[in-house]
């Protein structure tokens, strides 16, 4: 598709030129910046895969990212290494897997002629695989231990879940067969600035704080959660992050990261479908500045009015089809503060998939959703097989979704008034 390839090259050229521009403080007339924002569900990449540098599927995942060359990319389903998780060594700092992915894979060209983008990482704890202390799935037992997960297969694909692992995961704050599984990481071009001190996380935000929530009931109408559970049950199946990133023209774009639970794998109470809806609905409240929101540090309120933002992640919701409860993705895309854009389409036709499908299970579930304050220059769903692909397959069950966004500079401050002089 030569037309699409040309638009990608032009977008990258604009991006590289923009990243070389002087800081806004150096003078007026600073131009907009073009940044490529992407989201990519890696499909269950674990610590055992990242402490080495030759895992075949992870090499292929890194090659895809190197070819796409995003400025900012959210990775879903990369394990958060933490005490108690498989492969975590005593004395290690938690949350190093994203940096391992950078050091062992992304900083090494994965195919001849490929260049690397130097990234820095942001990672934070996830609710996945974190034991709750409650019988959250109401099966009559509280499962507080997990078996060692089956190892990665020789082709690099993740080990299969076991019934014992699923039983443990069903009683965790977010499903995971071990602590930290299916977590997130944000990678940002090292020439940009992550405003770390201004990052807000909402991992502990209670579900019943959501006004008009859809907390489930049992089929007989009685509450699904006990009063003790409801007081502390967390909305986020992984977490919700607001990560401000400062661009070379002085503007800040807030990357709003999440990975809501799939709206399936439950019963007639539809607790996962309802949670998925409210996890996505959280962003609608947040970008509207809702005062009912409180972050993990106790700071109240949502996003400041007029802020640039982009919602990114595997939202596990298709705006038009699938098993979503009350169409949360459609509501997000229609929000008054969200930019209107055509759905990104695949650059390669894949049998049985619609052009806008972002996953092999034939749904558009991965999203990059920008604010009305920025312009969409180009977008797409990256389906090209890497040269290092394993067995003729794409290295994940999801494809990266990318968008080139034109972010204007901050308003110039008016020049100081000239003091009046006596005649």
How many helical stretches?
8
Unreliable parts? 1-18, 20-27, 414-423
SSE arrangement, N to C: HEHHEHEHEEEHEEHEHEEE
N-to-C CA distance: 71 Å
Strand content: 15-25%
Widest sheet: strand ordering:
3-4-2-1-12-11
The radius of gyration is 22 Å
Total beta strands: 12
Helix fraction?
Answer: 10-25%
How is the main sheet built? 6 strands, mixed
On the 0 to 100 scale, the average pLDDT is 92
Which secondary-structure class do the elements indicate? alpha+beta
Q: Give the CA-based shape.
A: globular
Structure in words:
The chain has eight helices and twelve strands. The protein is α+β, with helices and mostly antiparallel strands.
